[in-house]
Amino acid sequence: MTTTDFSKYRLLRALRPFSFSVALITCLVGIVAASGTDNFSPFTAVIILSAALVLQAGVNLINDFSDLNELADQQIRALIRRNFRYGLGCFVAATALGLYLVAQVGVELLLLFLLGLVGALGYTLEPVNFKRRGLAVALVFWLMGVLMVAGSYYIMTDTLTAAIVWQSVPVSLITSLLLLANELRDEQSDRQSGIGTLTVRIGYRYSSMLFMVLLVAVFFIAGGLWWIGLLQSGWWLLSVPLALWLWLRLRSGEQLETLPPLTGRFFLMFGLLYCVSL
Q1: Which of 224, 234, 221, 230 is nearest to 273 (CA)?
Q2: Could you tell me the CA-to-CA distances from 117 to 20, 88, 90, 123, 162 in Å, in that order?
Q3: Which CATH number applies to 3-277?
Q4: What does the domain layout of the chain look like in residue ranges?
Q5: What separation in angstroms does the CA of 237 have from each of 2, 75, 272?
Q6: How far is residue 244's CA from residue 242's CA, in Å, rounded to a whole number?
Q7: How far from 5 is each of 15, 61, 207, 256, CA to CA, in Å?
Q8: What pLDDT does residue 274 have?
Q9: What is the pLDDT of residues 186-202, one digit of tens each?
Q10: pTM for this structure?
Q11: For residues 198-218, average pLDDT
């Protein structure tokens, strides 16, 4: 094992803090969209954000558990098991916060939480293991994107609308972009380890093209939402320079280790501007 391989499983790297923007932004979109309603509660909004961040940490920490079957180094295996235990602890904390919200909103919300929990556990755990089957990029669009936005809106308003589903699409696409950035960075190591991510299955070139298509689609769809009145302004356009930086970084094929955190920064910037635009 190389030093780089070892560092992949250290706690800070396993936490993937740059990906916390996913939980923060997706929930904020739902919360901001609900901010004009009579039922809006700042305290409930804080609980939603806390539960989402803890859940995101748990998903990240269990992410490498399936690698145990491919690794012989006992020190690295111990790190993976430790991260997995911490991840389960995060799931327990998120469940406690979720049950509080269920008590406030109703048992219907429990079905939404169970769907999210099953998806989170199935992300890397056998026998489902969406990551190894190359389905993770599509899965996070729904579970960490649409479901988080619509779920946050439902908790705040006790209703669901077609508008909030459409408003969730741009940020949901960036959740897939963030995962794809990870896959592109780890393509060689995943291929050597036999981990069949989408990037490993379709190849680096086509995965890079998909990244660029999704990046363009974010702005194309946001523009469409602005055109039909589901966005009130175009503040999100200020994130275009960072998107271009992402595009050029991927085109160059250099310093791919910076692609995930750079995508995370783009997500945070676009997402905050998108919330202002709602």
Answers
A1: 234
A2: 17, 11, 12, 10, 24
A3: 1.10.600
A4: 3-277
A5: 42, 46, 11
A6: 5
A7: 16, 16, 22, 15
A8: 97
A9: 888 778 777 778 888 88
A10: 0.82
A11: 92
